Amino acid sequence: MPSVSVQRLFTDNRERLDLCWLAGQQGSLRVVTVGALSDSTAGLIAHLNLTHPHRFQVLGAHEMAYLQSLDEGALATAWEGIFSSELVAIFLSEGCVLLPALAERAEQRSIPVMGASVDSTSVINQIRHYLSQELAEQESLHGVFMVILEVGVLITGDSGAGKSELALELITRGNGLVADDVVEFYRITPDTLQGRCPPLLRDFLEVRGLGLLNIRSIFGETAVRPRKNLKLIVHLERPSSGDLNTCERLPMGRQTQSILGVAIPRVVLPVAVGRNLAVLVEAATRNFILEQRGINSTQEFIDRQQQFMQESCAQGDSHEF
């Protein structure tokens, strides 16, 4: 299950937010897991909230001024609201000075307190985006993930269908490789999947007869992409009889494949000797782009055919008179 420790969060965002440790560093091994993104009992990160607890509380100039304005009894109640059982860490934004009472409680309860020189909104936006990336639901699939015409395309098919050879030809045509063999998909928003390559396999493509190829070294930096949102699946399928005539010529309904609860458009390409799969995959991608713009080539042809038949019938009726 994906998880992020406070120490890792601090290290990864230190430069961007100009972070520093203020108190409670002994609690840096506290972790937040993937369930934090969907847990309705506690928020993830926001400004000070004493009624609905957050795992990460952000205190800026306004919040600190509010706390300092409270009398002793109200302040004690506020501290109890801040240091809830769900609390993982506290951010002091805008270069606010750490109050002694806050430092004391943070040390007692091993709650990390980090300081940031940027404003509180920047802290919230950055940490929320970071956690949504790192704690996203994950699923690994077999296939080759490519960036074709700037569209994330997953090429799937049985072993020996020619996925890697197809990927190599697509790369020579200027497209990019994200991952070969194993692709890790993360659900970064309710309807968005992002594909990445496992660190061990990064830059490599396995081709039968050639072995492992370092695509970055052979074709350059632009031939490899670190990640891309998945938009289309192209499945390579060998006809059971080996005859392309058995395949559907004009598929009408759009196929989809569900990954982590997200429906992804899917195109099935029959594999046969002599077919230029690279051209077909690029054509399928271009057709997908047109469909995203509201242009459906098959439906356009059907509409034209119906109009032609209606006009022919009308002309036939007029000749009878």
From TrEMBL:
Residues 205-214 are annotated as: Important for the catalytic mechanism of both phosphorylation and dephosphorylation. Its cofactor is Mg(2+). Residues 133-304 form the HPr kinase/phosphorylase C-terminal domain. It catalyses: [HPr protein]-L-serine + ATP = [HPr protein]-O-phospho-L-serine + ADP + H(+); [HPr protein]-O-phospho-L-serine + phosphate + H(+) = [HPr protein]-L-serine + diphosphate. ATP binds at residues 157-164. Transmembrane segments: none annotated. Keywords: ATP-binding, Kinase, Magnesium, Metal-binding, Multifunctional enzyme, Nucleotide-binding, Serine/threonine-protein kinase, Transferase. Residues 270-275 are annotated as: Important for the catalytic mechanism of dephosphorylation. Mg(2+) binds at residues 164, 206. Its EC number is 2.7.11.-, 2.7.4.-. The keyword Metal-binding applies. The active site is at residues 142, 163, 181, 249. One of its GO terms (biological process) is regulation of carbohydrate metabolic process. Pfam families: Hpr_kinase_C, Hpr_kinase_N. The keyword Ubl conjugation does not apply. GO terms for molecular function: ATP binding; magnesium ion binding; phosphorelay sensor kinase activity; protein serine/threonine kinase activity; protein serine/threonine/tyrosine kinase activity. Residues 4-131 form the HPr(Ser) kinase/phosphorylase N-terminal domain. The Walker A ATP-binding motif also binds Pi and PPi. Both phosphorylation and phosphorolysis are carried out by the same active site and suggest a common mechanism for both reactions. Catalyzes the ATP- as well as the pyrophosphate-dependent phosphorylation of a specific serine residue in HPr, a phosphocarrier protein of the phosphoenolpyruvate-dependent sugar phosphotransferase system (PTS). HprK/P also catalyzes the pyrophosphate-producing, inorganic phosphate-dependent dephosphorylation (phosphorolysis) of seryl-phosphorylated HPr (P-Ser-HPr). Homohexamer. Belongs to the HPrK/P family. This is HPr kinase/phosphorylase. It comes from Ferrovum myxofaciens.
